[in-house]
Amino acid sequence: MKIAIDAMGGDYAPQKIVEGAVWAAKELKIPIVLVGDREKISEELKKYHTEGLPLSIQHASQVIGMHESPSKASRSKQDASIVVATKLLAEGKVDGLVSAGNSGAVMTSALRYLGRLHGIYRPAIATLIPTQKGHCVVADAGANSDCKPEYLFQFAIMAKIVAEKILSIENPKVGLLSIGEEKEKGNHLTKHTYPLLESFKNFQFIGNVEGRDIPRGKADVVVCDGFVGNVILKIMEGTGDVMGKMIKAEIGASLLAKIGYFFISPAFKKFRKKVDYAEYGGAPLLGVKGICIIAHGKSSAKAIKNAVREASLFASKKVNLEITQKIQEANLHSCFQPEGNQNVAKFENENNHSDPTFSAKSN
Asked: Over the stretch 222-257, which tens digit does the pLDDT of each residue have?
């Protein structure tokens, strides 16, 4: 097992990235390849005792910035750290990669150099959201702003596998995110996705779920398009951050509150750990031929360490193999016959966009 880390990606690169890599090598005993400017990485490594640690450097002379066009930059900057790291994965020299850099560049590079798993139409970003009952896998969380029913159907299959193999949830409950629980509610996408999920007997579909149901833990898997999923992720991230600051301000406003906090601080620490994104490392890009973990742009060393742990877990659990097998077993096209095929055609007609590379009749 060996994991490549984009050492130049992220707001705090290379300092926090290298620190996290050293932490991962020490604690997890996983060989790490730091990809990026050799001189800068070497200078950072001098800050730590690394003798005997499974750390190596793969030089990359370029960096793709956060505000650069992912497609243009990944084509023009062939020696960019994320491109070089992806090529290492494509060549089988590493078993997974972690990047806190430009997420669009990660996805573009993965599609260009790794390709999609057999039978997958669109990759999806899956993110873990803490709930009252544990965790919920939300997919897609940002890879596809515009989706079709078939995409969401596959997102459900892939996210269900993550819930089973990574979260160890037996027979996870799958919900379709909408504006009401009733089958008839929603937009064109949700209304035409519902019958596909409902007719598939290989997972426990519980129907529509609303946004408030996610933190309540009503479903173990929630499916939506990437635009909505990313908005949900950012709202929850912002809400958690603001609530933490508000609570801290209230505690500091009075002596009585400070005394009370002394007694309940252990509970607060447990809660903070549960909602801290750094505990989860990053979000896997599902549906590509390789393990890619997209970490937060502001990732700390702790987040990078846990992203390495996550990448190794996905690789060891053979998640991609399971996805390929389940997609084949699903026999997707037969799920569209006869009602489903008409449903997909109706969706495309109503939205006036037919994708010649992706239809119910494609192979």
From this structure: 999 999 999 999 998 888 888 888 888 988 888 888
**Residue range(s) defining the domain that contains residue 155:** 121-279
Find the length of the chain: 363
Distance CA 181, CA 219 (A): 13
Give domain status of residue 148, yes or no.
yes
Quickly count helices (H) and strands (E) in the chain.
13, 11
Q: Which residues of 186-215 are buried (b: 16+ CB within 10 A; e: fewer)?
A: beebbbbbbbbbeebeebebbbbbebebbb
pLDDT at 261: 82
Q: What does pTM read for this prediction? A: 0.87
| 152, two tokens | 């969401």
The per-residue pLDDT for range 90-129, each reduced to its tens digit, is 999 999 999 999 999 999 999 999 999 999 999 999 999 9
Residues 178 and 139 in one domain: yes
Measured distance CA(104)–CA(80) in Å, rounded: 14
Continuous H helices in the chain: 15-28, 38-45, 70-76, 81-90, 103-109, 149-165, 188-199, 213-216, 226-251, 255-275, 301-316, 319-330, 339-351
Which amino acid would we find at residue 152?
L
CA distance linking residue 160 with residue 330, whole number of Å: 13
> DSSP 3-state helix, strand, coil percentages of the chain (rounded to 5)?
50, 15, 35
The verdict on 128 and 174 lying in the same domain is yes
Whether residues 275 and 134 fall in one domain: yes
One domain, residues 156 and 274:
yes
Domain boundary at 279, 308, 343, which?
A: 279
User: What pLDDT, on the 0 to 100 scale, is given for residue 65?
Assistant: 93
DSSP code for 117: P
Is 173 within 8 Å of 204 (Cβ atoms)?
yes
Residues of the chain with pLDDT under 50: 332-333, 336-341, 344-345, 352-363
Measure the CA dihedral 188/190/196/201, to 10°: -170
In terms of domains, do 71 and 128 share one?
no
